[in-house]
Amino acid sequence: MNTATDTDVVSATVRAIVAGHGSFATGIISAVDQITGRGASFLAMSNSGLCLDDIQDTLARAVDETGARVIFTDLPAGSCTMAVRRMIRARPGVLLVTGINLSLLLDFAMQESVDPVVAVNAALERGRASMAVHGG
Q1: What's the pTM?
Q2: What is the pLDDT of residues 85-130, one digit of tens each?
Q3: Mean of the per-residue pLDDT values for the chain?
């Protein structure tokens, strides 16, 4: 599994960065890898121990080193999301998707031959549609 601290050895196969609290990114990427074998398509980044500026710098470096144009985050108003929102002001080609779930990430991973920005739209629909309430 790729992590933000491994960006110097990350191959060109990384299509997107997943950033979040604690081990959220490594956990959800691990699940994608277990199901699809395509976990190497993602670079994981944790905000643990980092201030907003550090998160922004780490993500910017990861984008530069991988060429990823999509960043997924866990919370819409979390520190990773705030850092990405600041960063993309100067990077109009980078897309931020917040509040992700496993269904969304699986769909994105399975669209390997599709432009990542285009794949996000279909994946977003899949992620939204996967949420349901049963019983009550």
Answers
A1: 0.90
A2: 999 999 989 999 999 999 999 999 999 999 988 899 999 999 999 9
A3: 92
10 and 43 Cβ atoms separated by less than 8 Å? yes
Q: Where are the alpha helices (DSSP H) in the chain?
A: 24-36, 52-66, 79-87, 102-110, 116-129
Name the burial class of residue 29, with classes exposed (0-12), middle (13-18) and buried (19+) by CB atoms within 10 angstroms of its CB: buried
Q: How far is CA 22 from CA 19, 94, 134, in A?
A: 9, 23, 29
Of the chain, the end-to-end C-alpha distance in Å amounts to: 39
Sequence letter at residue 52: L
In order of 18, 96, 97, 104, 134, the CA distances from 121 in angstroms are: 16, 12, 10, 10, 26
